[in-house]
Amino acid sequence: QVQLVESGGGLVQAGGSLRLSCAASGRTFSSYVMGWFRQAPGKEREFVAAISWNSVSTYHSDAVKGRFTISRDNAKNTLYLQMNSLKREDTAVYYCAVDSKSMTVNFQHSATSAYDYWGQGTQVTVSS
């Protein structure tokens, strides 16, 4: 059974940092695009970042560019999201996802429909 398990969320003050992790089990995802999305209460799920299988290409949304960094460790089958300079508007449940049909990132990876595996999410709350 394929599982994606996010961790590292929590409560942090504005301006602080958090590092999210997404551990994959049941299957290796080292050959595929992986991504992060987030969903705030009452809002649609929003693209955050995506990364190619070999980490050569990354794609960050304008909302997080320069503050968040996506990375992966294929040997550990784990995806990361380093979040710095956090703002209140970053408060959301963060989800990791895998597109098992693609190795390289393109603009389509900003859509939830591009991904076929999802984690259960981890809550990030940024206080002022």
Per DSSP, what share of the residues sits in E-state strands of 2 or more residues?
A: over 45%
What multimeric state do the chains show?
A: single chain
Q: In angstroms, what separates the terminal alpha carbons? A: 40 Å
pLDDT < 50 runs, ≥5 residues: none
Compute the CA-based radius of gyration. Answer: 13 Å
Helices, strands, pairings?
Layout: E1 3-7, E2 10-13, E3 18-25, E4 33-39, E5 46-51, E6 58-60, E7 68-73, E8 78-83, E9 92-99, E10 117-118, E11 122-127
Short structural summary:
With 128 residues, the chain is mostly beta strands.
Describe this structure in words.
The chain is mainly beta and 128 residues long. Helices cover 0% and strands 48% of the residues. It contains no helices and 11 strands. The chain has strands at residues 3-7, 10-13, 18-25, 33-39, 46-51, 58-60, 68-73, 78-83, 92-99, 117-118, 122-127. The strands form 2 sheets. Strands 2, 4, 5, 6, 9, 10 and 11 form a 7-stranded mixed β-sheet that branches. Strand 4 (33-39) and strand 5 (46-51) form a beta hairpin. The chain is globular, with a radius of gyration of 13 Å. The N and C termini lie far apart (40 Å). The mean pLDDT is 96.
Question: Keyphrases for this structure?
Answer:
single chain, four-stranded antiparallel beta sheet, 128 residues, mainly beta
